Every structure is written in structure tokens, then in C-alpha cells.
Amino acid sequence: MARIRRRLIAGNWKMHGRLKPAVAEMRRLAALVRRAGRSRCDIVICPPASLLVPLRATLAAAGGLRRIALGGQDCHSADAGAHTGDIAAPMLADAGARFVILGHSERRADHAETDALVRAKVQAAHRAGLIAIVCVGENLAEREAGAAYRVVGRALSRSLPASGVTAANIVIAYEPVWAIGTGRSAESGDIARMHGHIRRRLGRLGPGLEACRILYGGSVKPANAAEILSLADVDGALVGGASLKIAEFRPIIEAAWAIE
Ligand code: 13P
Known about the structure:
single chain; 260 residues; alpha/beta; TIM Barrel; 10 helices; 8 strands; binds 1,3-dihydroxyacetonephosphate
């Protein structure tokens, strides 16, 4: 039986990537996907904003634009204005992005982003026609205090706008903060339970929202990708460090292909 939700593997390059090596990695990814024939899952790369335009050109030249999408890592809640150093959602769209990551725990920690701000950014992303990848996840203290489900449920309902949200314009990424960049991913049982919790919560937030794709993020790597991607309610992965080199990202994509 065909899967209802198409898997999505997203690479979050964070503040990594200089022009020449980034173009070379993107060429490798495009070649990999081209060789595989039909695209068997959605692939998104979210590079630093400075690389969107050159990477879009790289993909266009390599025939990869239909198979690999680009995304931003953040956007401002306004469409334009006096906000030095920020980037607006329509600018990301102009640069070739179709997705934008919002509410990543690093943004929440480094820039004190609140759920209310994330919600306003989601609205900005939607005004620009972008698909928002909204990140939620508990920190270690919250997990140890037994508060993970409450924290994630609350972040979810507060970070999503009350209207205009559909399963087509939102992707949720569950990223336990303690698993990000630590090499220590969450246990399979915990991931499956949390994703089930998120899906039930989404169903209560709006009609049809239980059909949203829910990604897991936090130390996804070649060694654990197949197991994580086969879990109930896991529709893909948001990959940080292991997405920077296509040699490491490739087995993660292939794991998604293998279970399709
Ligand atoms: P790592 O895969 O490096 O743990 O990062 C996860 C992440 O934060 C993706 O957004």
C-alpha cells in the first residue's frame, strides 16, 4: 500500500558552508538523486541564506531542481522593514527557497525566540508561499522532570497559527534539544511515543492537521537512520551534522528510499 505521507529528508546546514565546497556537495547530491531515477522521497537542503542563489543555480544546471528543494533556516515575522541583519520570507522565496525552518532550538536559545514569535514567523512564511518546518523539543531538564510531553504539546499549540495552517504548508520537526549535535539520538520507543503524541495533538489543533509530516531530528546518522525512519509516525528526518557531506547524507537518504 502506498504511504499516505511522502517521506521528507531535510538537511540543516546551520552556519556551515562556504561557496566552493557547498557547490561541490550539491552537485554530488544532484548526481545521486538523478542516478536513482524517480524521486522516492522529498529532499530539502537548508543552507545559509547566502548560498541559496548559487545552490539554486547549481541544481538548475545539474537537473536537480525538481527533485531537491531548498529552504531557509529562519525568517523575520515582517515582510520588509528596518531590521538589520534579518531576512524576510519573500526574500527567501525570491532566492529559490520553498521551505523555511522556524523555531529551531538554536534560534530559541541564541535569540530568545518565543512560541509567539515563531507563530508570527510561520504566518510570514505562509504569506510568502513557503512551507514552514516548525521545530519543537524538550531540553534535558524537562525530560528528566517528566515534562517532555507537556513541553512539546504546549510549544506545538503556541507556535502554530490558529488559521491558515494545513498539512501541506506545515511540517513538524521533533528535535529533543539534548540530542542535537551530541551524537546521542533519542531511543526509538521514545521517538515513536512522542511522534504519536504530536500527531494526536495536531489532530486537535485543526481539521486535517494530523496528516502533517513529522520529522525526527537530533543526531540522525547513517548508523541509526534506517531504524528511526521505520518508526510509526516518523515521516522523515531533519539532519544537521550528517547532512554537510553527501558521503554521510547519502546513506540516510538511501535508508528512506529502502523502506518506501
Ligand atoms: P544534528 O543532526 O547535528 O544533531 O542536528 C540536528 C538539528 O539540529 C537539525 O536541525
